[in-house]
Amino acid sequence: MSVRLRASIVAFALFGVTCVGACAPEPSTAESGASASNAVTVGLTYIPNVQFSPVYVAHDDSLYSNAGVDVTIRHHGSDEGLFTALISGEEDVVIASGDEAMVARDSGMDLVSIGTYYRQYPGVVIVPADSEIQTLSDLKGHSIGIPGEYGSNWYATLSAIFQGGLSEKDVEIASIGYTQRAALAQGEVDAVLGFSNNDLVQMLQSGMDVRAISLESQTPLVAASIITTRQWAEANPELASAVVSATTAGINSVIDDPDHALDVTMAWDETLSDETSKSNAMAVLQATIPLMMNAGGPAVARQDLDRWEMMAEFLGSVPGVVSQKPDASLAATNEYVNE
């Protein structure tokens, strides 16, 4: 099956946020006092969401300003490409999925990951609790619903098929848009590819009787990362390092105090206005925290470059995803990690 690389925003891109829409207004913030030369715009996909709480905490708790960076947070919505603002210079850094960044490089984008955001990949195969599908190999002969043949959902589906010892011919891949919950509930597909900290949480919160089949721990994909352009990083090495270290500090603050993280997020996400929405957001946050931790401990910014090489090998082996095997050494670097 062919892969359509879209210029428009992709489904999860990195976090699997299901509510795609126009950017919500950002809360007003006091001037940090940093000079214009220290100004950095950090891009976040989709509308405000608790999965971005480390960035909100790093901003509102002055972790960025204490590191000498005057950060502006910018959300972009469904009418804008994932890396469009980064390439145009409207954003300097974006939190985005490593697999999508590597594929985007194949189209000529000078992207480089300079730090880890999610340590673990959140992709899971979700099936009804009574499904006969127990393992990835059991997907043979069954249908899998995904938004479309693009983005992290698609790459995770390819990985699930590969890890199950199957080929694309062994399964029926159905492009169902962003209707995974309804399609699974109504029996339109046998399984869906979703994310453990979003789709799965939302289904369970809604009362659906489902379970998840995880991808292998060594899935050859890289999840949410701190992405910039090589040109910007090389021109601003101190700012790049500061953004990485302060964002990682924000992640560890969220791990240590989820309640505070939710309180901070509420200032950015106006939908968190009642106890139900707050409870749902906390459920998402609690499912997100393990993805950010390093082997059960504090988060670290240093990237697993071997995993990036594994991803390059994998994506390069699947027909139609990239034109040639990606160069992992150009796609990710730990040069700006101070640990």
What brief labels describe this structure?
alpha/beta, single chain, 5-stranded mixed beta sheet, disordered N terminus, 16% strand, D-Maltodextrin-Binding Protein, domain 2
Description:
The chain is α/β, with parallel strands linked by helices and 339 residues long. The protein folds into two domains: 39-120 and 222-330, D-Maltodextrin-Binding Protein, domain 2 (3-Layer(aba) Sandwich); 123-214, Periplasmic binding protein-like II (D-Maltodextrin-Binding Protein, domain 2, 3-Layer(aba) Sandwich). 36% of the residues lie in helices and 16% in strands. The protein is built from 13 helices and ten strands. It has helices at residues 53-60, 63-66, 84-88, 98-105, 151-163, 180-185, 199-205, 230-235, 237-256, 258-266, 275-292, 305-317, 328-331, and strands spanning 39-45, 70-76, 93-97, 111-116, 123-128, 143-146, 172-175, 191-195, 210-214, 224-229. The strands form two sheets. Strands 2-1-3-10-4 form a five-stranded mixed beta sheet, sandwiched between helices. Strands 7-6-8-5-9 form a five-stranded mixed beta sheet, sandwiched between helices. Helix 9 packs across helix 10. It is globular and about 55 Å long. The model is unreliable at 1-35 (pLDDT under 50).
